[in-house]
Design goal:
The complex is a heterodimer of chains A (253) and B (401). With 253 residues, chain A is an alpha/beta fold. Chain A has helices spanning 37-53, 67-77, 94-108, 127-135, 189-198, 236-250; strands at residues 2-7, 9-11, 33-35, 56-62, 81-86, 112-116, 139-149, 152-158, 164-170, 173-177, 201-205. In chain A, the strands form two sheets. Chain A has a nine-stranded mixed beta sheet with strand order 9-8-7-10-6-1-4-5-11, sandwiched between helices. Chain A has a two-stranded antiparallel ribbon with strand order 2-3. Chain B folds into three domains: 10-106, Fumarate Reductase Iron-sulfur Protein, Chain B, domain 2 (Orthogonal Bundle); 113-265, 3-Layer(aba) Sandwich (Rossmann fold), CATH 3.40.50.1860; 267-398, 3-Layer(aba) Sandwich (Rossmann fold). The radius of gyration of chain B is 21 Å and the shape is globular. Classes of the chains: A alpha/beta (253), B alpha/beta (401). Bound molecules: iron/sulfur cluster (2 copies). The site of one iron/sulfur cluster has 16 residues of chain B, from helix 5 and helix 6.
C-alpha cells in the first residue's frame, strides 16, 4: 500500500506567543515551530501499517525551521520517501497548504493519505477534508485505528462519549488521524544521525500560494479578562475549602 | 514472563557481549564471580528480574535476549552502588547497565515518561521541556546582575555551569539564587551561559541515550570554546561527573569542580561571614555522583559543620554506601514506571533514614534532591517536620544573604 502523510509544523507553545504590530498575525521573531502532535501520530500510523502489511510511506512537509530533522526522524522510523515543499509559507493558511500538498500528492498517486485530524492553529478548517476536496477523494476524520483489506480499509472513528464506529472506506481516501494505534515511538539519536547521512529529502519548489476560500483575520488578540470569573483569595487551605463549598453548591460533589 | 534457557539468538548475545569490551574496563565483565554482591546491594535488586549479576549470568548462558524482553533494567537508577562494591571491580553501572539500557532504547522499548524527557532534550536542550530562552530567568532581579557571558563577553575566573534542574525547577531556583549570592559575597568573578547552555546529558547517557549525550556535549563544547575562563564549577554532580569523566574523551577538557569543592577551598573566607545560627541536627545525603562516583565526601560536610548551630548527624547509609534518591540514570523521568513496579520510592526510604537519625534538616548538594525529598516528606507522616535544604541555601541563610 502506498501511503502519503502530509504534515505541518505549528507554533510551539513552550514560547509565549505575541501578536505582531499588524494585530492580525503572530509575531514570528521568537516563534518556535513544532510538529503538529496529531501529524506525528499520522506518521506513526503509516509506519505501523507498513510494518504490518508492507508498503511505502512518503512524508510531505512544507519548509520550516526544524522540518528537516523531523523528516529524518520519520525516515529513521521507517518512512521511505521524504518530500519538502520549498518556498515562503509564512502566510499559508490551510486552504493554501492543502492545495500545495494536493498538487504533489496527485503525482504520487497514493492509496491512502493520513494526516492529523486537527492542529491548534487551524483557523480555516483542518487540512484533511480540504485535501480530500481538492483531490476528489472520500474523507473520514477522528480515526484511531486502521485495518487494511484490499481496495478498502476499515477505519475506527471515534465519537464523543466513548463511541466508536467502524467505517469502511474505498481507496484511495484521506483519513484524519486522532491517535495512532501506538504512541509515536522513540528513535535513538544515533539512528537519526546515521540516517541523515543516507536518506535524501526531495525538494519541490512551490508555485504561487492560493488561499481562496480561507478566512480573513481582522484582529488577533490575547484572551481578555471577562467578568464571569471569580478569584478565590486566601491561604491554600481557605481556597480549597471555598472551592469544595462551591462544588457542593453546584451539585458536582 | 517465563525464562527459556535455550539460546534464542546467540548472535545478539555475542554482539552485545563483545560490545562491552570496547568500553573502558569493559573486559572486566569476564571476571565476574557470580557472587551476587551487586544484586544484593542494588536498592531495586529485589524487584529486577535481571539484576546486574543475573544479566552477566544470562550473557554467559547466551540468553541475553531474555533480558531485553523484560523491562527490569529501567529500575536501575545508575547509583553505582553495585560497581563500588563489586569484588572484581567491574564497571557495572557505566558499562553493563548503561549498555543494556542502550539496547532497550535502540529496540524502541522506552517507557513513555523517559521518552518525553529524551525528546525534550533533543528539542529544547533540557529534559524538562522548558524554553531555552528562559534558562537564566532564575537570575532575574538579582543584584548585582549575574554576568551572562553572551552579553558581556568578558573573560571570567569561573564559568558556572548551572545545569537543567538548577536553572528551571521552581524548587531549585531559590538554591541557585543562593549560590549566586554566595559567589558575589566572596567576590568571585564568575559568568553563566544562560540560553546558550545545554543539558550536560549525563543522566540521558546513563539512561542509555549515548547519541543524545554526545550531541549535548558537542553543543556545550562549542559554547565553552567561545569564552575565556579559568575553570568550570557546577551545581549538579551529574554535570560535574560528565565534565570530569566523560567530556574529555570527546575532546572537551576543562578544569572542573563541584561548587562544594570550590566553596570548601574558600572556607576560611566564608567562616567569618557565617553569622546567623542555624540550630538543628543536620543529616547530609551524599549524592551518588558526588560521593560514591567521584569521592567527594568531606567538603560538603565541612561546609555544613562551619555553620554555627549545625550539629551533623549521619544516616545509616552514608558516604560510599549512600542510598540513591532515585533520580539518577533516568530515574528522574521514570517515577511513574518505578512506582508501578515497586510501590515505594527510594526518596521515601531516605527520608525515613533521616528521621531515624533524628535529623531536623536533610541537607543535599544535588538539584534532583530537594524536589524528590520534599515530596517524600509529604507522604511519610513522621517526616512532615523534616526540612530539605540545599547546602547553598543553608550557607546563604547563615550569611544573611
Ligand atoms: S558483584 Fe561483581 S563479581 Fe559479584 S556478581 Fe556482581 S558483577 Fe559479578
Ligand atoms: S547502578 Fe544502582 S540501581 Fe543500577 S544496578 Fe547498580 S546498584 Fe542497582
Amino acid at each position: 500500500m502506498k501511503i502519503a502523510v502530509p504534515i505541518k509544523f505549528v507554533p510551539d507553545l513552550v514560547e509565549e506567543l505575541t501578536i505582531d504590530p499588524s494585530g492580525t498575525a503572530l509575531d514570528t521573531t521568537w516563534l518556535r515551530l513544532i510538529i503538529n502532535e496529531l501529524d506525528d501520530h499520522a506518521v506513526e500510523q503509516a509506519v505501523l501499517l507498513k510494518e504490518r502489511g508492507g508498503g511505502d510511506v512518503t512524508v510531505l512537509a512544507a519548509e520550516a525551521d526544524g522540518v528537516d530533522d523531523f523528516l529524518f526522524t520519520a525516515a529513521a522510523k521507517g518512512a521511505d520517501r521524504l518530500i519538502k515543499l520549498t518556498g515562503d509559507f509564512s502566510t499559508a493558511d490551510n486552504h493554501a497548504l492543502g492545495r500545495a500538498f494536493a498538487d504533489v500528492i496527485k503525482e504520487l498517486q497514493p492509496d491512502l493519505i493520513l494526516t492529523g485530524v486537527q492542529a491548534h492553529n487551524d483557523l480555516d478548517g483542518s487540512i484533511g477534508p480540504l485535501l480530500a476536496e481538492y483531490l476528489g477523494l472520500p474523507y473520514v476524520g477522528y480515526v484511531a485505528g486502521i485495518t487494511p483489506g484490499g481496495d478498502k480499509v476499515i477505519a475506527r472513528k471515534e465519537y464523543a462519549g466513548g463511541l466508536v464506529a467502524e467505517v469502511e472506506v474505498k481507496l484511495p481516501a484521506v483519513l484524519g488521524i486522532q491517535a495512532a494505534e501506538q504512541p509515536p515511538r522513540y528513535v535513538a539519536y544515533s539512528k537519526i544521525r546515521q540516517i541523515m547521512g543516507t536518506a535524501k529529502i526531495e525538494e519541490r519548489p512551490l508555485g504561487a500560494l492560493e488561499s481562496g476560500g480561507g478566512v480573513m483575520i481582522e484582529r488577533m488578540f490575547q484572551p481578555e479578562a471577562a467578568e464571569r470569573a471569580t478569584m478565590l483569595e486566601g491561604s491554600p487551605e481557605d481556597v480549597a475549602d471555598k472551592l469544595v463549598g462551591l462544588f457542593k453548591e453546584l451539585g458536582t460533589l | 514472563m517465563e525464562i527459556t534457557l535455550s539460546p534464542l539468538s546467540p548472535s545478539v548475545n555475542q554482539t552485545f557481549y563483545t560490545s562491552l569490551f570496547d568500553l573502558q574496563d569493559g573486559e572486566r565483565v569476564r571476571t565476574c564471580l557470580q557472587c551476587g554482591t551487586c544484586s544484593g546491594i542494588c536498592p531495586f535488586g529485589y524487584i529486577m528480574k535481571f539484576p546486574p549479576g543475573k544479566i552477566i549470568g544470562a550473557i554467559r548462558a547466551e540468553i541475553f535476549e531474555q533480558v531485553l524482553k523484560t523491562d527490569s533494567v529501567w529500575m536501575c537508577v545508575s547509583c553505582n552502588a553495585c560497581a563500588s562494591f563489586c569484588p572484581s571491580n567491574i564497571p557495572i553501572t557505566r558499562v553493563l547497565m548503561t549498555r543494556t539500557k542502550e539496547e532497550m532504547i535502540l529496540a524502541g522499548n522506552v517507557p513513555s515518561e523517559l521518552q518525553a524527557a529524551l525528546e525534550n532534550t533533543q528539542r529544547y536542550g533540557n529534559p524538562l521541556g522548558e524554553s531555552p530562552r528562559k534558562r537564566a530567568d532564575w537570575a532575574l532581579g538579582l543584584q548585582p546582575e549575574v554576568n551572562l557571558l553572551a552579553k558581556t563577553r568578558q573573560p571570567v575566573e569561573v564559568l558556572w555551569y548551572v545545569g537543567d534542574y538548577a536553572s528551571y525547577h521552581p524548587r531549585m531556583q531559590s538554591a541557585t539564587r543562593a549560590l549566586a549570592k554566595i559567589l558575589n559575597a566572596l567576590g568571585v568573578n564568575f559568568g553563566i551561559l544562560g540560553p546558550e547552555e545545554y543539558s550536560d546529558g549525563d543522566s540521558q547517557r546513563l539512561a542509555g541515550e549515548r547519541g543524545l549525550f554526545e550531541m549535548m556535549a558537542q553543543k556545550n563544547g562549542q559554547v565553552f570554546r567561545k569564552y575565556k575562563f579559568n575553570e568550570i564549577i557546577t551545581t549538579d554532580p551529574h554535570a560535574f561527573n560528565a565534565l570530569k569523566n566523560e567530556y574529555p574523551a570527546l575532546g572537551i577538557e576543562y578544569p572542573v569542580r563541584h561548587y562544594t569543592q570550590f566553596l570548601f577551598e574558600r572556607l576560611e573566607q566564608i567562616k567569618p561571614l557565617l553569622k546567623t545560627e542555624i540550630k538543628a541536627k543536620v543529616a547530609y545525603h551524599d549524592p551518588c555522583y558526588l560521593g560514591r562516583v567521584n569521592g567527594i565526601f568531606d567538603e560538603p560536610r565541612a561546609l555544613l559543620s562551619a555553620i554555627p548551630g549545625v550539629e551533623l548527624v549521619e544516616m545509616s547509609h552514608q558516604r560510599i554506601n549512600s542510598l540513591c534518591c532515585g533520580g539518577g540514570g533516568g530515574g528522574m523521568w521514570l517515577d511513574g514506571f518505578q512506582w508501578e513496579k515497586a510501590h515505594t520510592r527510594l526518596s521515601e526510604w531516605r527520608v525515613r533514614e533521616a528521621i531515624s537519625a533524628n535529623a531536623q534538616i536533610l541537607a543535599v548538594a544535588c538539584p534532583y534532591e530537594p524536589p524528590r525529598f520534599e515530596d517524600a516528606t509529604k507522604t511519610i507522616p513522621a517526616a512532615s517536620q523534616l526540612k530539605v535544604r540545599e547546602i547553598a541555601e543553608l550557607l546563604a541563610e547563615s550569611m544573611d544573604l
